[in-house]
Amino acid sequence: MNTGRFVLTFVVVWIVYVILSFVLNGAILNWEGVEGMKMEMGTGSYILAIIGELILAFMFCFIFTKGYENKGIGEGFRFGFYIGLLMAAPLLFLHFAYYTYSAGLVWGFAIGNFIIYVILGIVAALLYKPQAAAA
Fold this sequence. Notes:
mainly alpha; single chain; 4 helices
Protein backbone atom coordinates (compact mmCIF):
# COMPACT_ATOMS: atom_id res chain seq x y z
CA MET A 1 0.00 0.00 0.00
CA ASN A 2 1.20 3.49 -0.82
CA THR A 3 0.71 5.06 2.62
CA GLY A 4 1.19 8.65 1.49
CA ARG A 5 -1.35 8.33 -1.33
CA PHE A 6 -3.70 6.45 1.00
CA VAL A 7 -3.63 9.27 3.55
CA LEU A 8 -4.19 11.88 0.81
CA THR A 9 -7.07 9.86 -0.64
CA PHE A 10 -8.60 9.33 2.81
CA VAL A 11 -8.47 13.04 3.70
CA VAL A 12 -9.88 14.18 0.35
CA VAL A 13 -12.61 11.51 0.36
CA TRP A 14 -13.56 12.59 3.90
CA ILE A 15 -13.73 16.28 2.91
CA VAL A 16 -15.76 15.51 -0.23
CA TYR A 17 -18.09 13.29 1.81
CA VAL A 18 -18.66 16.00 4.43
CA ILE A 19 -19.38 18.64 1.77
CA LEU A 20 -21.70 16.44 -0.31
CA SER A 21 -23.52 15.18 2.79
CA PHE A 22 -24.04 18.74 3.96
CA VAL A 23 -25.44 19.72 0.57
CA LEU A 24 -27.70 16.66 0.39
CA ASN A 25 -28.94 16.59 3.97
CA GLY A 26 -28.87 20.29 4.80
CA ALA A 27 -29.67 22.08 1.57
CA ILE A 28 -31.55 19.57 -0.59
CA LEU A 29 -33.41 17.35 1.90
CA ASN A 30 -33.50 19.88 4.75
CA TRP A 31 -33.24 17.40 7.64
CA GLU A 32 -33.27 20.43 9.96
CA GLY A 33 -37.02 20.63 9.38
CA VAL A 34 -37.61 16.98 10.31
CA GLU A 35 -38.69 16.33 13.89
CA GLY A 36 -35.94 14.70 15.95
CA MET A 37 -33.17 15.18 13.38
CA LYS A 38 -31.74 18.54 14.40
CA MET A 39 -28.27 18.37 15.92
CA GLU A 40 -27.83 20.89 18.71
CA MET A 41 -24.45 22.42 19.50
CA GLY A 42 -23.08 21.11 22.76
CA THR A 43 -24.96 17.81 22.68
CA GLY A 44 -22.04 15.82 21.32
CA SER A 45 -23.88 15.13 18.08
CA TYR A 46 -21.33 16.96 15.96
CA ILE A 47 -18.32 15.12 17.36
CA LEU A 48 -20.12 11.80 16.91
CA ALA A 49 -20.95 12.74 13.33
CA ILE A 50 -17.32 13.66 12.63
CA ILE A 51 -16.08 10.39 14.13
CA GLY A 52 -18.58 8.44 12.05
CA GLU A 53 -17.61 10.29 8.88
CA LEU A 54 -13.91 9.70 9.53
CA ILE A 55 -14.48 5.97 10.06
CA LEU A 56 -16.60 5.79 6.92
CA ALA A 57 -14.00 7.58 4.78
CA PHE A 58 -11.13 5.51 6.21
CA MET A 59 -12.84 2.18 5.62
CA PHE A 60 -14.07 3.25 2.18
CA CYS A 61 -10.49 4.03 1.14
CA PHE A 62 -9.01 1.00 2.89
CA ILE A 63 -11.36 -1.39 1.09
CA PHE A 64 -10.75 0.44 -2.19
CA THR A 65 -6.98 -0.01 -1.89
CA LYS A 66 -7.31 -3.73 -1.10
CA GLY A 67 -9.03 -4.40 -4.42
CA TYR A 68 -7.22 -1.72 -6.40
CA GLU A 69 -6.59 -2.76 -10.02
CA ASN A 70 -5.32 0.55 -11.51
CA LYS A 71 -8.17 0.70 -14.05
CA GLY A 72 -8.95 4.38 -13.73
CA ILE A 73 -12.23 6.20 -13.25
CA GLY A 74 -14.28 3.17 -14.30
CA GLU A 75 -12.87 1.21 -11.38
CA GLY A 76 -13.79 4.02 -9.00
CA PHE A 77 -17.28 4.27 -10.48
CA ARG A 78 -17.81 0.53 -10.11
CA PHE A 79 -16.49 0.52 -6.53
CA GLY A 80 -18.65 3.50 -5.57
CA PHE A 81 -21.65 1.86 -7.27
CA TYR A 82 -21.25 -1.33 -5.22
CA ILE A 83 -20.63 0.51 -1.95
CA GLY A 84 -23.58 2.78 -2.74
CA LEU A 85 -25.82 -0.26 -3.11
CA LEU A 86 -24.41 -1.76 0.08
CA MET A 87 -25.03 1.41 2.08
CA ALA A 88 -28.14 2.97 0.53
CA ALA A 89 -30.38 0.03 -0.37
CA PRO A 90 -30.64 -1.52 3.12
CA LEU A 91 -31.11 1.92 4.68
CA LEU A 92 -33.99 2.59 2.31
CA PHE A 93 -35.89 -0.37 3.71
CA LEU A 94 -34.79 0.25 7.30
CA HIS A 95 -35.93 3.88 7.21
CA PHE A 96 -39.33 2.82 5.91
CA ALA A 97 -39.54 0.12 8.60
CA TYR A 98 -38.45 2.13 11.64
CA TYR A 99 -39.23 5.78 11.00
CA THR A 100 -42.21 7.86 9.98
CA TYR A 101 -40.33 10.08 7.55
CA SER A 102 -42.02 10.96 4.28
CA ALA A 103 -41.40 8.69 1.31
CA GLY A 104 -39.84 11.57 -0.60
CA LEU A 105 -37.33 12.20 2.18
CA VAL A 106 -36.38 8.53 2.46
CA TRP A 107 -36.02 8.06 -1.31
CA GLY A 108 -34.04 11.31 -1.56
CA PHE A 109 -31.72 10.16 1.22
CA ALA A 110 -31.15 6.76 -0.41
CA ILE A 111 -30.64 8.04 -3.96
CA GLY A 112 -28.55 11.00 -2.81
CA ASN A 113 -26.27 8.81 -0.73
CA PHE A 114 -25.91 6.31 -3.56
CA ILE A 115 -24.74 9.16 -5.82
CA ILE A 116 -22.34 10.38 -3.12
CA TYR A 117 -20.70 6.95 -2.91
CA VAL A 118 -20.28 6.80 -6.68
CA ILE A 119 -18.59 10.21 -6.59
CA LEU A 120 -16.36 9.10 -3.71
CA GLY A 121 -15.31 6.03 -5.69
CA ILE A 122 -14.32 8.21 -8.63
CA VAL A 123 -12.37 10.54 -6.30
CA ALA A 124 -10.54 7.57 -4.78
CA ALA A 125 -9.66 6.21 -8.23
CA LEU A 126 -8.30 9.59 -9.32
CA LEU A 127 -6.14 10.06 -6.23
CA TYR A 128 -4.86 6.66 -5.16
CA LYS A 129 -1.86 5.18 -6.94
CA PRO A 130 0.05 2.09 -5.83
CA GLN A 131 3.57 2.37 -4.54
CA ALA A 132 6.12 2.34 -7.32
CA ALA A 133 8.05 -0.91 -7.57
CA ALA A 134 11.59 -0.75 -6.25
CA ALA A 135 14.23 -0.69 -8.99
